[in-house]
Design goal:
alpha/beta, 6 helices, single chain, elongated, five-stranded mixed sheet
Amino acid sequence: DPTVYIEGDFVRRAAKYRVESVFAGDIDAGRFRSKKMQSLVGATATKRGTAFNALVLQAVKALGLWAEGEVELTALGAPPLGPDGRGWGDVDVLAVDGRRKLVHAVECKSLMEARSVREIVDQLREFHGDRDDSLGKHLRRHEWLKANLETAAKRIGQPLDKCRLKHWIVSSKVVPMQYRTSHGIDHWHFIQFSELRQSLIG
């Protein structure tokens, strides 16, 4: 029979990482079979995501820009369903820079830190730009806004004539998408929270 060696410190660090990930909501809930564990991790991740959205909104307003959070596209004039029969969702942070004539559509993602090959692949797959993944949904909202800025301007009471639309995906950590061009989107659209000021106002 082969000899199996167990390195105690490695096991300790692996167990510590898993337990901390659970209570931080920093792990995919789908990895658990238990409905209770899935619910615990999912609720924690939702709470963390909501807090991160609020943090980004506060930071954008601190830059002196007009900004609103969780803006439904239907509130901006979009029909309830898109041409493909699906809903639109919301823009996590919509900001207007009147001086520079820019509109920023910001998607906020409080993502877990990808430490393994599997976690890196999972994040790249989720932000590949396909129809139903996170990036694909973001791009649908961006395309509607791009084509309907005048309609949106009437709803939010901001002058958007001659404005250009820019879109960003802001993450709480370094993510692998920052180093890969996805479908229809360059890697520089993915920024960390610490890069928010530089990206929005230079």
